[in-house]
Amino acid sequence: MTVANQEDVSVQPHNVLKLKYFDYVEIYVGNPVQAAHYYQTAFGFTPIAYAGLETKVRDKASYVLQQGDIRLVLTGAFDADSPISEHVKIHGDSVKDIAFEVEDATAVYEAAIKHGARSVLEPTVFEGQKGRVIKATIAAYGDTVHSFVQRNEYSGVFFPGYHRHTSPLKTESTGLTEIDHVAVGIEPGQLDHWVEFYKNILSFHEMHEEMISTEHSAMNSKVVEDSSHRIKFPLTEPIPSTRKSQIDEYLDYHNGSGTQHIAFLCDDIVASVRNMQERGIRFLRTPGSYYDMLEERVGALDPELMANIRDLCILVDRDDWGSLMQIFTKPVQSRPTMFMELIQRNGARGFGAGNIKALFQAVEREQELRGTM
Ligand code: FE2
Question: What percent of the chain is modeled with pLDDT above 90?
Fold first, then answer.
């Protein structure tokens, strides 16, 4: 297989082959009615479209929700033998499709197939009263797929076949603006295969970003991004025979590779986290000792900000370009699989590698205090 190097990639971006941005993320769930209510009330997404029995779709129901430029599709099946039911049976509620908006779905699909992608859906025209959408789909990691969506001749809500859908409940935004990155858990030994997949098939390049670098780490990570730097996938595989990592746990409960978390960008993480906590979202806690060491690591912080981030357990990291603040929710389903991240970037381009080490050190410091090291 020929591997395009970074220089090749930078001189070959035919505009039609470029991905514009994430179009939607479709999550297969056991109960789309309740999932839609959860993402509306807890995460602040506005319901915008629906397809199901009432719109003459016989095999599944889908709710589409939007906040800023983030669009989620929550889909569940009616039949036990549906592939959607099978996906939920194996993986639990789990991301199925990470779709990209493109200028020319057929051209992107054909280029992907030519470079070795497996076809899931050939370019297909979906027609409605408000125009047409062309969609094509290829297989990606695990049971996940990538769809290419061409919607330049469509003015309706989401997709032909969907009806406009509103909720009797008024949606209050939580300040999430766009998808910063989608993090993927990869089965051991397959990391390089999937890095090459994104490089060869979608003309992504590898970011020169060391994500995880602690002696305790039992994971290998690499980050791929598209030429616009707006679509980023950190990919992580566990290293076997070391102690069980969070990726091992993910793979065990998810039954294979899949989407580990979606990171939502926000402009005011303190306000967003406070707002979401009040709605019942549970975030990971951070030991107080992390904050005792924080300014040594990232420099002096405004005292009011410091008090807020300590109160809310927000993490801070710094790289060559600037700083970032981030926080992780607990898993959003009963299996310890997918969770969500909130991230506010003040110049930083990384993903919080320094926090992994700092969190280990904070825990060790507390162990020292307890005399249990
Ligand atoms: Fe992340």
Answer: 79
Ligand 1 center–CA 317 separation, angstroms: 12
If DSSP codes are grouped into helix, strand and coil, which group holds residue 138?
strand
CA 253 distance to own-chain centroid? 18
**116, 203: one domain:** no
Ligand 1 centroid – CA 304 distance (Å) = 25
Residue 169 belongs to a domain: no
Domain membership of residue 323 as a residue range: 2-13+174-370
Q: What is the pTM of this model?
A: 0.92
- One domain, residues 179 and 292: yes
The tally of domains found in the chain comes to 2
Mean pLDDT of the chain: 91
- Note the helical H segments in 239-348: 246-254, 269-278, 288-292, 294-298, 303-312
Confidence band (pLDDT; 50, 70, 90) for 16? Answer: low
Cα of 349 to ligand 1 centre, how many Å? 12
* Separation of CA 326 and ligand 1 centre (Å): 8
Residues 87, 206, single domain; the answer is: no
Ligand 1 centroid from CA 262, angstroms: 7
Question: What's the average model confidence in pLDDT over 122-133?
Answer: 97
Ion ligand 1: residues, CB within 5 A, are 183, 263, 341
